[in-house]
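Job type: complex structure
Entries:
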Amino acid sequence: MNREGQQQPKAKQLKGEEVAKHNNREDCWVIVHGRAYDVTAFLPEHPGGPNIILKYAGKDATETYEPIHPPDTLDKYLDKSKHLGEVNMSTVKQDQKEEDPDEQERQERIRRMPILEQCYNLMDFEAVARRVMKKTAWAYYSSGADDEITMRENHTAFHKIWFRPRILVDVEKIDLSTTMLGTKVDIPFYVTATALGKLGNPEGEVILTRGAKKHNVVQMIPTLASCSFDEIVDAKEGDQAQWLQLYVNRDREITKRIVQHAEKRGVKGLFITVDAPQLGRREKDMRSKFSDVGSNVQNTGGHDVDRSQGAARAISSFIDPALSWKDIPWFQSITKMPILLKGVQRVEDVIRAVEMGVQGVVLSNHGGRQLDFARSGIEVLAEVMPVLRERGWESRIEIFVDGGIRRATDIIKALCLGANGVGIGRPFLYAMSAYGLPGVDRAMQLLKDEMEMNMRLIGCSSIDQLNPSLVDTRGLSLHSTTVPADTLGLNVYDALAGPQSKSKL
Amino acid sequence: MNREGQQQPKAKQLKGEEVAKHNNREDCWVIVHGRAYDVTAFLPEHPGGPNIILKYAGKDATETYEPIHPPDTLDKYLDKSKHLGEVNMSTVKQDQKEEDPDEQERQERIRRMPILEQCYNLMDFEAVARRVMKKTAWAYYSSGADDEITMRENHTAFHKIWFRPRILVDVEKIDLSTTMLGTKVDIPFYVTATALGKLGNPEGEVILTRGAKKHNVVQMIPTLASCSFDEIVDAKEGDQAQWLQLYVNRDREITKRIVQHAEKRGVKGLFITVDAPQLGRREKDMRSKFSDVGSNVQNTGGHDVDRSQGAARAISSFIDPALSWKDIPWFQSITKMPILLKGVQRVEDVIRAVEMGVQGVVLSNHGGRQLDFARSGIEVLAEVMPVLRERGWESRIEIFVDGGIRRATDIIKALCLGANGVGIGRPFLYAMSAYGLPGVDRAMQLLKDEMEMNMRLIGCSSIDQLNPSLVDTRGLSLHSTTVPADTLGLNVYDALAGPQSKSKL
Amino acid sequence: MNREGQQQPKAKQLKGEEVAKHNNREDCWVIVHGRAYDVTAFLPEHPGGPNIILKYAGKDATETYEPIHPPDTLDKYLDKSKHLGEVNMSTVKQDQKEEDPDEQERQERIRRMPILEQCYNLMDFEAVARRVMKKTAWAYYSSGADDEITMRENHTAFHKIWFRPRILVDVEKIDLSTTMLGTKVDIPFYVTATALGKLGNPEGEVILTRGAKKHNVVQMIPTLASCSFDEIVDAKEGDQAQWLQLYVNRDREITKRIVQHAEKRGVKGLFITVDAPQLGRREKDMRSKFSDVGSNVQNTGGHDVDRSQGAARAISSFIDPALSWKDIPWFQSITKMPILLKGVQRVEDVIRAVEMGVQGVVLSNHGGRQLDFARSGIEVLAEVMPVLRERGWESRIEIFVDGGIRRATDIIKALCLGANGVGIGRPFLYAMSAYGLPGVDRAMQLLKDEMEMNMRLIGCSSIDQLNPSLVDTRGLSLHSTTVPADTLGLNVYDALAGPQSKSKL
Amino acid sequence: MNREGQQQPKAKQLKGEEVAKHNNREDCWVIVHGRAYDVTAFLPEHPGGPNIILKYAGKDATETYEPIHPPDTLDKYLDKSKHLGEVNMSTVKQDQKEEDPDEQERQERIRRMPILEQCYNLMDFEAVARRVMKKTAWAYYSSGADDEITMRENHTAFHKIWFRPRILVDVEKIDLSTTMLGTKVDIPFYVTATALGKLGNPEGEVILTRGAKKHNVVQMIPTLASCSFDEIVDAKEGDQAQWLQLYVNRDREITKRIVQHAEKRGVKGLFITVDAPQLGRREKDMRSKFSDVGSNVQNTGGHDVDRSQGAARAISSFIDPALSWKDIPWFQSITKMPILLKGVQRVEDVIRAVEMGVQGVVLSNHGGRQLDFARSGIEVLAEVMPVLRERGWESRIEIFVDGGIRRATDIIKALCLGANGVGIGRPFLYAMSAYGLPGVDRAMQLLKDEMEMNMRLIGCSSIDQLNPSLVDTRGLSLHSTTVPADTLGLNVYDALAGPQSKSKL
């Protein structure tokens, strides 16, 4: 915010009529939190595309702006000369809100929400969130790339792994604690980075910070958070550990500033996203509304008009598609934080990562939001570990997996195969969206309870006992479909039916 | 029951108003079968959790208490000093029963029940039981762990085994008899242990005893029966054989007493449950009703409140999570009964069992009620037998399998692969719940008829002729899923349809 | 029929009232085609069980009797002394037929039947038959054993075989003709034996005889035909070839008489059924009606009451369960017809058949009506042929396959793998039941047209060009199921949807 | 058209009544575009069968004739002596058009069509086309052979191929261009040949010509286009490249004329169809209407009456079933255009094609419209390339694939495996049918946008970087089905359900 603006007397407030005149692509003002901004020059650079701003040209954009921009956004990205000062909000014409039957139904669903105690597993939070979230917010969180095959495969892949449990082991005391990048945690999962937390809850990512604290797990702070980085760091307590997920900007100075600021603020690990040189097409999200907010923030290349302008436009400046292995030494030169690559998808690149001296990798396909038909992280893990073990390299690097984890059995499977820990994203977003912090708390507790029980049932009392002999992965890497259905044959088959009740008396 | 209480004159009966005052956690009395008990101190130890008792604090709990506690429970577990004597039941205020539309519909379904002769296979009893059982009882019997993947896999696994039948063998006379732990039986299945028989039928497990007698098969008596152990033993006739399923108590003296009592009463085999150091989460059961009775008896760790109290609470004292291989010699020292491990799930542990000198194992995952993604017993059998045969150990141990058996072909498959017999649990519970003893009788007879027929059709006239060359198990160990559905593609595909009838004249 | 009876004057006709007195198990008369019979002594021997006869004790049974007994049945199986002579039918009380709403609906469906030209493939006839056949007749034809897994697998198995077609081969002229057991046929299928043709069409199996003639294929005459053997042989024209399917009677003299009579009447091949020492349980059929006729004819052991009487009862005298390899030389001694074993299901038995000098085998599981989880004939074929070829025995025996053939591609697949021909049963029954001879004719013509086209498309102009390199069978022998469905996961997944239409204007 | 006819004065016009007299098989006139033709002698030669013409005997056939005959058809195929001259159309009785409720509903659906921008992928166009196309046109485009297993498998096969993407590669600039048969194209797909474009859009194939120009891809001109060959060539602009798909006529002179005319007109490649010695049975199409137009054009053998006349009739003269490898040198002698075989389906034939010196092959099964259970082109590709590479022949021939391509990932998969490019047919037809040229334009643009993004996400910046290590094809060649469904088991299973909402307040 413009300092001078803060000192201006009320008399100098802008009037609604004045702002309303600047309502087109050549001359575009918007009001945010009671202040006017001239965004004309910024329009073509807006990561979410110009259209969504133009919709509010000359008007108050606060409600739409709020959930998807950290509070320091305007200060950071808009030159102070464009900060036009306070607006007398009583002079601003309010759009008559139409009655929206969808919204009314949603409010009804909120009134009838199940109580928190009715959620017995992570899927339950998702079921509730789906009913009570705004449609566009749901679409943004829940969508995946293209046909969403990879997104669904992520969880399904765990179903191809079966246990070979041990019996008659003393499992009275179960210790779920382990260490990730030197941090002792109570259970081997971390809260992975997901964007735009305020779409689900007005407080945003700091709720996840508090949940992570309560259960002593690490939170990975997303570049595209709704809260500002500092707000999220400020929300941590004591020696709570946080990591940073990083989209690398074309302008390496910006990146350097972000990285070094994070290190100064105590962040314990730098996770460079390497699976998103361009952000994926999420059609469910695109379809959810033309003028949808969420859909455009990341889908910089997804909007029709923009797409037809080709690649240059499709690549937003805040993610550098030219990022390559050659950049790794530079990162190593600017920070002492452990550096990890997030989004590695084949063993060859894990080998290379070890050779480059990075501290870890996350085997991940970005929650199925980028390349469809990318394999699941857990499948890649099963490909990676035998090769690392053969070379004796398994302790030269930490291996994390994310994508599709919903049950403690999923966590255990990953650890049996050799992962140091797993990242969980959407489930906590859904828990937060439906029930706030208590939801996140319960979700984490459910995982702990499930995991303690399953550790007992698999015959292991501590994390270091988990090993490959406890799982059967023979079906894991088979991507098959069945022969297309025999429609005519099925039509004429008379399915078996059980005993019929007597007809009503 | 308090002996003195029995001698008290009517004048000394307690009044309802008096009992009703003790209606909270700090002071809690309940009435069972016309007698009052002070259970305040017992509340925290109740395996089903305190809440379910508190619901009846100061009231008559008989109806709920009855089906899930053996008659000797109060004598065994509640100190005589807490037995408060008879209550004048006419002074006890009866809860006005609300009209329950669900219950009315169930009564209507009972009136329209198919007659017994309409049940042609074991699934049919389940279909009827599902309609006529109380919802909570059905939920308790039918539920499995987590996503119930293992529970369903148990039967499905048999579908991956196909026959290679022999032809032109004289199969006029079929002999289904075989020997299990030295007992001659008429057909190679036994009634395996399942808890809380009175939920399905007021008489409880003794019905199974009678059914087993009629068809000359062994019944395994469950630790958690609704009838008392002695009632079940008393119900046997002649030289009828019974086995005991044992949950090992932390207090080994209790366990010793149970085991030696069983041996004295003529029990022919001791099956130590090794797949349940903690009882599994059965969400369907938990969800069926918050205040549900059945759901809490075993799910000692499943209730929300309790779970959040962590592991100490989650482990009920009556199952010792510290049970380990080291305990086996002790068992061998206290009994001469054959000792078997129930719930073995991988070949390494079968090998170890042989080395420890136990007489047998049951390859089982507890009917899919414990660890989800545990493999089916039949799959483990296919892993175990070749290893045993290679070592020449196949006759050093008896191998049983349970889980998912519904057809005589399932039994034959298990025996072809090398099992000595199979355990069947839920199907007989369902037959009993729907039709009582005649249901159990018919269910067993159907299996015999199916098996006799299928022995003929596979070309074997006696059990000892069954061998691995008669089955094709190549698909058995493949745990695969298909690629997630191509939703958009399926949406636009116009399925084929057969010839259309003329429009109505 | 009683000769004397035939000579009795009208005055001597029995009266309805007289017959009606003999209406119980101890004294049971029935009327068939205007004549009375004392069947009291025969009751326990009736292959369909006594109950179905008792239903008509003292009454006219003609309508039920007719479709399921060849005309010479009473002469053959009931001693002449029990033939009581003509009945004055005007004195017989007619059962008041109840109005049957099911039957009325069926009549309506018949009125609206698609015309024959709307049937474009074999499944279409089945679709029509299902709508227009009597429910019990449909249940008898369409049912399979147990869970009907094998019955469905039979056709599904063909879906696992894919083509590797040749191109640029001159396929102007296609010759579909081949030779089976020395008979030249126009296309390599034969009409295999199926029981009780009159359930579908009042004329019965002779319709199939005429259809087979028209398309120059062989008909296999069933032991359990509705028409008598001689009627079916009489219906053949010119040098039309027929084979005989034989259930071997315990009384070998009866069998000998049947076989030698068949040879005398010109039958060209003897197919001894070896997969039915006991007839299978077809629950769909059993369920279709308690008092159902069709269901009892073969399911001699299937009826509840009877089943509980055990094995002795379950084995009908007309099929000898003791039939074994030792009987084969005897068959070879009583006939010069080629002898084939119908129902062979593994390579070991094919080898043995060759060694015994039989002329052929039918790889078959009896249309899925006997042993559930028997593999499909086509799968067994893929197991058998490489072994035969390795030994150089492929021309020492003719190999046929039946079960699940619905498309010409199925026939071609079987021939590519090495079969000499395939048997087709139910599809022609359905065509006959829906449309009579024109239906059978069209069904056969459709197969010819399909086959001619597909021969062109696979790049072969004659049967002898078909060979294993033209098919890919790698998936054939895999009997897998997918991991049980992830119910909760599927519930919360928001399926993709295409573009929405505008709301109605 | 008859030149003299054009010069006749109005007075000489034929009258409707006159034409109407010639209304039977022995004497059949029809009116097309205001002129009468005597087609009596042509009836038996009509590729679509005589019935469809007879329906218009003595009447105006223009509306039905128009979309499925190129404008020069009558001149080419009907002797001038049969051109009878102009008709006074005011004297022609118009058939009273019945109100067709289906058509009214379709018109309503057209009014409510989604706008073009709502189509986000190729399936979306199909979804819209299905709603707005005429039923018979939809049936013609969308149908496949027999059970349509191959048609569906074509796209499904791509789902069995998964990516192994590279990370940290500079993918700022993506170059999608490549070369096909010497022509530089902007993206490695071409518009493959599909028949009867006017069924979907009155302008027909020239729309595809314009779309191909706009995106600089090659169009393959179909023999059975609705537009004439010259119209389509005339529609190209500048150096736009076109290829010709050829059905080889029995009369090689006709074929020679077509080929040499194409070469003269600048066509750059000759694709000889080798998978259609006879046109396939497409039952969906046949069923869509008895008198349907589209269904008969290609299904010359499909109509009942015709089929029963056997093979001679079934083979239309315009496709020579005798075409064989021996004809290839002749083609090489009559043209200098590159010669390619379209419809190759196994590696042996690719080898042979290389040996014969042809320039390329298209691995294709004709869009699943010919032989059912033919494998997908992409699967054949995976069989072919390793063999070619082993011989070092991969650059001696260009390999194309078509069938089932719907996503840019499908294109990338084919190129990774070694294809030079892929053909896309139906999706552009659907885009054209729903939205005309803008639809085709957007469809192509969407593919480009998808492909550019996916190239980035797979870590490749140009086509030549695509290679087999980027894909996992282990599941590709497995054609399996699952064991038939356990109907009874599924019936009795109580599926899990999530938390229930409170009942309505």
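Summary: The longest strand of chain C covers residues 27-32. Chain C has a mean pLDDT of 89.
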